[in-house]
């Protein structure tokens, strides 16, 4: 039996988006973040809905939204050192402890080592090969953001990748195509 439903490795826009969407819609989501995201060097002018925001401010707001507003468990400054798949899902090792989940979302930027260790297929461009839902060749394992793109490393694209992964996980869990569409009545 898994400790949680979804483990997300990475705390940038892709990882936080995946964790938020999963948790917001009833799945237990745990995220591990080394806090080495490129967002610390970014300033957003091209993120829809944000006129101008420092990357650090964006991360603070995104973390608060994911954790305080939607219940994501975030292990900050915690590196995942190993991942393996077993009969029940995935075993993720961080700080010498094993954590288990039915689903895995990799959001480690251009660092593709964990995806390689897990046995995910790669493209000719040496990025993780995923389908439109961000699922890798390893069932129930997803890769997002710069892991799957040779060039398009944008925060808004990465956040969308994370959302796509979470929505596919929710579709699998709910047994029907799942939409996360909020209305004013939800506020």
Automatic annotation (TrEMBL):
Domain spans labelled FAD/NAD(P)-binding: 5-41, 62-157
UniProt entry tagged with the keyword Flavoprotein = yes
User: In its UniProt entry, what is this protein called?
Assistant: Thioredoxin reductase
Origin, by domain of life? Archaea
Q: Single GO molecular-function term?
A: oxidoreductase activity
**Keyword vocabulary terms for this entry:** Flavoprotein, Oxidoreductase
